[in-house]
Design brief:
Blueprint lengths: L2 H18 L4 H8 L3 H9 L6 H11 L3 H5 L4
Length: 73
């Protein structure tokens, strides 16, 4: 797996978790204090998030950080 594939998988996982919480991209971005465009790029796999960014997202989705990066769930 290369970097781009990993970014895409993590982005899909964020989207999956967000949608399971019936939350819009705008809502999650607002809770995380991110621009909606940044959340869109994250979910599309077009950016390489830092571990702190993933931590903020996990906190606002009320899931453990491992749920964002455990791609075998």
């Amino acid at each position: 797996m290369d970097k781009n594939e990993l970014q895409i998988l993590i982005g899909k996982r964020i989207k999956q978790l967000r949608e399971s919480k019936n939350m819009s991209q705008i809502e999650l971005a607002s809770l995380c204090n991110f621009e909606k465009s940044n959340m869109n790029r994250l979910e599309a796999g077009n950016t390489n998030p830092t571990i702190f960014t993933l931590y903020i997202i996990a906190e606002n989705l009320n899931v453990p950080l491992i749920e964002l990066i455990d791609l075998n769930i």
